Amino acid sequence: MIVGNLIAITQTSMKRMLAYSSIGQIGYVIIGIIVGDSNGGYASMITYMLFYISMNLGTFACIVLFALCLLSLGGLPPLAGFFGKLHLFWCGWQADLSFLVSIGLLTSVVSIYYYLKIIKLLMTGRNQEITPHVRNYRRSPLRSNNSIELSMIVCVIASTIPGISMNPIIEIAQDTLF
User: Fold this and answer.
1) Could you state, in chain order, the average pLDDT of each consecutive group of 10 residues for the chain (178 residues)?
2) 78 — phi, psi (to 5°)?
3) b/e sequence 139-178, b meaning 16+ C-beta within 10 Å
4) Could you tell me the residue ranges of all domains in the chain?
5) Which of 19, 61, 74, 116 has its CA 20 to 30 A from that of 90?
6) Measured at the alpha carbon of residue 47, what is the angle toward residues 167 and 24, in degrees to the nearest 5?
7) What is the tally of helices (H) and strands (E) in the chain?
């Protein structure tokens, strides 16, 4: 716990910081193991692990939602930014400002380009710290195409339901284990 968190503070690489953070998180789980059966230590440990898993999934969901917001800012349909820009450009066109609307359309395409660069960096960003074994790793052909959607649904469910009803979850875990 102590070592993981103190080393995480000194890291400049996000990947290493999260790795040392995970070491610190394991220390918190060990408290539940040490407490054991008394005072609901196991139940608290299981509840904490559920929240920890939810937060890790939540991190990925935040990246996906941030990417959707960037695409909306770029004005891609069917996102909200598209309809806002469409209305603005239509009003400009009706006011006979075709040159300004053309510039707006052109700069929207430019903005989509650099927003896609940000999204690419978020999703598949390459880091110099990656070893050759990881860099040359081949993904499984059995991987689902809907994994992003499934991850977002699981994340929303896993992070809201336990937060709303924490006491019943602890009681269920205690009743199940003891």
Assistant:
1) 85 78 85 78 83 82 86 87 88 93 92 87 62 60 62 68 65 74
2) -95, 25
3) eeeeeeeeeeeeebeebeebbeebeeeeeebbeebbeeee
4) 60-177
5) 116
6) 135
7) 8, 0
